[in-house]
Amino acid sequence: MVGDDTGLDPRTPGRRFHAVLLDVDHSPRHVLHPRHAALYQPAGLRALADRLHPGGVFALWSNDPPDQEFNAVLGQVFDRSQAHVVDFDNPLQEGTATNTVYVARTAGP
């Protein structure tokens, strides 16, 4: 949908958003469908950034530890980006689980 001319809202083609929060794959390296891989490349991220308002936020959940290579790609496209490690209780594994949330912001107005 990011690379489609219609965009993320089929009822309002070209609509921009203040934030896009994504949980679609296990991580940028462990995609669930091969066509998702383009999203983690500069061109796919640029297409996503074009769907955001100035100062808009893109956040991505990942099951893997921070990926410096992916964070560098985010840095090529977005004005700012960070990887945040999130620890939480996981009763199914009887312990603590750790995930990563990437947060990137387009340049402001």
Class of secondary structure makeup:
alpha+beta
**Helix content, binned percent:** 10-25%
The major beta sheet can be summarized as: 4 strands, mixed
Number of helices: 2
Helices and strands, in N-to-C order?
Answer: EHEHEE
Unreliable spans are none
What is the global morphology? globular
Q: What percentage of the residues does DSSP assign to strands (E)?
A: 35-45%
- As a whole number of angstroms, the C-alpha radius of gyration is 15 Å
* Quantity of strands, as a count: 4
Measured distance between first and last alpha carbons: 25 Å
Q: What's the mean pLDDT score?
A: 90
Textual characterization of the structure:
The chain has helices at 42-49, 68-77; strands spanning 17-22, 52-62, 80-90, 95-105. It has 109 residues and is an alpha+beta fold. Strand 3 (80-90) and strand 4 form a beta hairpin. Helix 1 crosses helix 2. It is globular.
